[in-house]
Amino acid sequence: MKAAALAQQSDSRKCAVIVRNAQFSGDVTADAAIGTLIAKESQIAGEISVFRIPLPNSTPLLKLQTQSPEDARKLLTQSETLKKKIPQFKSATIRPDLSKPELIKYRSAWKEVIRLNNEAKLRIYTVRNFEVVKIPYKDNQSPWPWTVNDPKISK
User: Could you name the domain of life of the organism this protein comes from (predicted)?
Assistant: First the structure.
């Protein structure tokens, strides 16, 4: 019961990020090394604890618990860099640790962003505070490219 109460505390959630589709081995004894590698590559001084959240028929989610909300934010902002530096993160998606209602809003907003960016074939929109917003490019800057993926077929 204590774990469920702790999981709902937003202060604890602000210090964590969730990673989906990371290609690390199933060996949980290597999790400390994963945390050290991620901290080193993202230049975070504090320790990163790694927890695996099992999923049926899929690789487990990784919950990366940092020492501060600033470190978690740094991981989120450097997610594309981490994908390039750490081969196991190449196809990973990194998101904040959210409660169930927040996650529903977050996914809904991203679904809309993906639809809008697919139409424009450019990265024009993103999600901030669960809202769809236009990316503020500088006057002489053109929008980043956007790769249109085939929509997933639901079974």
Answer: Eukaryota
